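Private note to self, pasted from the team thread so I don't lose it. Backbone tokens:
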């Protein structure tokens, strides 16, 4: 039985993590910690103890894994408190603003023991485009364009304060898109990072830029991004190959890969290997947790290990250090 402690009971925990963890027979939720826990009667029925002080929680019972979903500004205090009382940590994204911070939040742990909740790495369409790129069935990948714009995004609660949130739309949501582009392209390094951004109340609200991805075969792939709260866009990642392009609709509930041949039109791509992989948040989360736990138990590194998110953090550092 894997013992899990949960720190932070926000919307993501309530709607994604909690139902997934409660559904598994191999998991025991040892305790839940938050400064204010609503619907406590639910945990009373499940015989899960609740704490408003993380020190009391870890003293009550050491856990195999601690799920940390608190806002960014609370991460260091939480990590310093729990690091001696847990064998692994699952951090909800966004994770870290600097490479040094990234390493600090995982120090003294094996890579496979720590993960970051960029769960879209377990979407079927994401695994599919990664396979297409690796197989070179469409030729070499030449360029990636990331577009995300949402005028309805709200800077409310802790997200309205840079000291608490860490950053604006690029950190909070853009990091999903950046991580997916790096993951699918097999990125091993990034360079030539350039951008312009607009800010409001010290928070970035729109940015546009470019960088180069160096893949595992030392080939360069140009990447362009546009992340905005000022405009609505066709929210997608477009992969440009030698004779065609593929659109990946990362946040769409009807997620598909759309191939556009430069001469013949558009087609929907389907791969039987990933046909049954999830694309809705609950199913994607369950797939991610399943793989993380599997590698944790078997003590093996994977694409979900914390060191494999380092380039995503590097781009966050490049973006926010200027």
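Design output:
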């Amino acid at each position: 039985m894997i013992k899990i402690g949960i720190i932070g009971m926000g919307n993501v925990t309530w709607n994604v993590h909690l139902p997934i963890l409660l559904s598994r027979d191999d998991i025991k939720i040892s305790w839940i910690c938050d400064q204010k826990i609503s619907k406590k009667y639910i945990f009373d029925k499940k015989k899960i103890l609740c704490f408003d002080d993380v020190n009391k929680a870890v003293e009550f019972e050491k856990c195999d894994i601690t799920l940390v979903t608190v806002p960014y500004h609370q991460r260091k205090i939480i990590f310093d408190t729990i690091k001696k009382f847990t064998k692994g940590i699952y951090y909800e994204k966004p994770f870290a603003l600097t490479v040094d911070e990234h390493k600090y939040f995982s120090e003294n742990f094996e890579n496979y023991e720590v993960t970051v909740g960029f769960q879209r790495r377990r979407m079927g369409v994401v695994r599919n485009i990664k396979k297409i790129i690796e197989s070179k069935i469409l030729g070499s990948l030449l360029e990636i364009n990331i577009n995300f714009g949402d005028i309805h995004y709200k800077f409310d609660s802790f997200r309205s304060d840079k000291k608490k949130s860490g950053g604006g739309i690029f950190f909070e949501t853009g990091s999903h898109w950046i991580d997916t582009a790096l993951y699918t392209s097999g990125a091993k390094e990034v360079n030539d990072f350039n951008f312009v951004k607009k800010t409001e109340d010290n928070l970035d609200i729109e940015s546009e830029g470019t960088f180069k991805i160096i893949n595992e075969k030392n080939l360069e792939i140009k990447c362009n991004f546009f992340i905005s709260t000022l405009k609505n866009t066709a929210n997608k990642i477009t992969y440009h190959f030698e004779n065609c392009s593929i659109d990946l609709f990362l946040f769409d509930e009807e997620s598909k890969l759309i191939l556009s041949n430069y001469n013949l039109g558009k087609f929907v791509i389907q791969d039987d290997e990933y046909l049954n992989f999830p694309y809705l948040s609950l199913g994607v989360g369950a797939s991610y947790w399943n793989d993380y736990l599997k590698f944790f138990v078997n003590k093996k590194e994977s694409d979900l290990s914390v060191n494999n998110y380092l380039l995503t953090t590097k781009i966050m550092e490049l973006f926010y250090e200027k």
